[in-house]
């Protein structure tokens, strides 16, 4: 998948804005996913899933950092996400349909926090970016 310069700008600008608040932003995206799609909680039975918990903030921070790293390597996501792809496909075996649910929750959190910048054009770029990230994370299932 290739990204235009305008798409890359929309992706990297918002990624830079969420990275200083990685734990909070990631915890909010996870909380939105668990509330809207409770079936996703099955993968996290070992976590305290209450809103703002230490587990959610720590895991949310990891997700946002991984997204920040991916945003800096949009032309080489396979390489940038290789070890995370091994983890999700071979060890965690997360059902691929769940990636859309997290991607949606991340986009809703972006819309809530950056209503001006996250306009339709930026959303389209992020939707494409998160689909590309998700494709890599589910590419090693067998
Ligand atoms: C672990 C990123 C989607 C379930 C992780 C880790 C990262 C990550 C960075 C930590 C890896 C480590 O500790 O080395 C992402 C990204 C996603 C994504 C960027 C998509 C944009 C999902 C989805 C699910 C999921 C959709 C399930 C609904 C898990 C689980 C763990 C994990 C269960 C292990 C948690 C633990 O026990 O610490 N993910 N993930 N991930 N992910 Fe994902």
Automatic annotation (TrEMBL):
**Which branch of life, at top level?**
Eukaryota
Where the record annotates domain Globin, the positions are 2-142
Q: Which Pfam families match?
A: Globin
Q: Which Gene3D superfamilies match?
A: Globins (1.10.490.10)
Q: Which UniProt keywords apply?
A: Heme, Iron, Metal-binding, Oxygen transport, Transport
- Asked if the record carries the keyword S-adenosyl-L-methionine, the reply is no
The UniProt similarity line reads:
Belongs to the globin family.
Q: What is this protein called?
A: Globin domain-containing protein
């Amino acid at each position: 998948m290739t990204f235009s310069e305008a798409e890359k700008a929309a992706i990297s600008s918002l990624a830079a804005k969420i990275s200083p608040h990685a734990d909070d932003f990631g915890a909010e995206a996870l909380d939105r996913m668990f509330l809207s799609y409770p079936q996703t909680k099955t993968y996290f039975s070992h976590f305290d899933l209450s809103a703002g918990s230490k587990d959610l903030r720590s895991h949310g921070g990891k997700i946002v950092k991984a997204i920040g790293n991916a945003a800096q390597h949009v032309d080489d996501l396979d390489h940038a996400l290789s070890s995370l792809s091994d983890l999700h496909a071979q060890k965690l075996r997360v059902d691929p349909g769940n990636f859309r649910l997290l991607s949606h929750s991340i986009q809703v959190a972006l819309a809530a926090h950056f209503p001006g910048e996250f306009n339709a054009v930026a959303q389209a770029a992020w939707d494409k970016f998160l689909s590309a990230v998700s494709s890599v994370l589910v590419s090693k299932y067998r």
